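notes to self, project folder thing:

trying the whole complex as one job this time. last attempt i did each chain seperately and stitching them together was a nightmare. two parts in total, labels are on each line so i dont mix them up again. if this works i'll redo the older ones the same way
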Amino acid sequence: MTYATSLTCRECSREFPLDPLHVCDFCFGPLEVAYDHDGIQSKISRERIESGPRSIWRYKDLLPVDDEFIVDLNVGWTPLLRADRLAEQLGMRELYIKNDTCNPSWSFKDRVVAVASSRARQMGFQTLACASTGNLANSVSAHAARAGMDAIVFIPHDLEAGKVLGSAVYNPTIVAVNGSYDDVNRLCSELADNRQWAFVNINVRPYYAEGSRTLAYEVAEQLGWRAPRQVVAPMASGSLFTKIHKGFQEFQRYGLIEDTPIRMIGAQAEGCSPITTAWRGGTTNIRPVKPATIAKSLAIGNPADGYYALKTMKRTDGGATGVSDAEVVEGIQLLAECEGVFAETAGGVTIAGLRQAIATEQIDPDEPTVAFITGGGLKTADAVVEHVTQPIPVEGTLQSFEDAFAEAPQAAAVGG
Amino acid sequence: MATRRVRFTFEGDAVTEPIIYLLGREFEIVTNIRMADVEQDFGWVVLELDGSHDEIDRALSWVEEQGVRVDPVAGDVVEG
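result (full assembly):
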């Protein structure tokens, strides 16, 4: 049984029923799920969580879904890797990588879509919908298939075929909108008001956003029931960033971990950094931008939760970083070469942002730090294909190998 | 009749123009401001528009022609 009680406006605190609503009727502020905290407190314990499934549903007491409606693709409980080799490269003492590339559709979006699709089923929807250029559409399509629901996915008309494939294989309805991103935004916002579809990040957004908290829950549990001192996470809409912090706060509130301060550092690519720009300018007014970066999964020019991300930074003595596309590629390579984790461009933003945060003294290299890697590298292979090591061509003879190997620059790195 | 919730973002000279006044005068729509924050060279306004679907579309096209950015109230919904 869920302990969710209502939706509450983040601006004026007005309450609404647990319906498919996302903005307050009075002030148009965003809505957020509210819970019966006393009920949760009376039931939750480390032991109860540890005896649950190895997925996000071990935290079902904290999620807005009743058991019988759960759409289960075994999302979450992804590895937390101690990253000593990367830490050494960056001059850090204790660094961990939360590797969310291991989710069923290879990105953290499975967490939010798992909750959104389950709640959509509970509210009686038969159709899941979204507007996306990649990860979100993949996850919506996969979850709809798993749940036996219909899926309709809106994409810009000029999206590369490779990116469409990750959704198309699950056989959703795919609508290619002939227009700009702004046109797709507008169309889908109107459709969400007019159709009986669960647009996961529009009319069921309050439930969708709740899934991101499970990243913090898992990290705290995997660290041996403690919070890290510092967090570096990518920012697109800003929702993931704020919900990670909220997740740690909730574990502190319920006494599952100690109440220690957590510094939140957000990472964006310079080509789409409206939140970082506002942070640097000392304002909470976010100026929308036209995205121009290889980090497409973070390319949200008008971030819905940017204001709240800024508040989280301020409240936690945190900060923000903005990195170039070249640094993004370097970040992907550094993570892969040091730790064996192949991240998409958002992961490159996180690692490059971590490096920048150290250089600008926004984080302390001696404090325990977790960097969130939110998607797998094969999704954005084009970003690195020209920068990675090339094969040494040889004939199938020992002599050919010896000759070629002796001259190859890569040979120096091979032992034996 | 239709209702649309939108966010206008003003930059530069557009901040000083009486866009919302003109919107209600030049088009058959009712404007209802719900939240706003306006600085010297930048500002945003969240408002509700009531009118026919076509008239709202026409009005919003005109607003964009004045150099004002128009977004859905929930921000960008196209995600990666």
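what i see at first glance: The CA atoms of residues 8 and 43 of chain B lie 8 Å apart.
need to look closer tmrw
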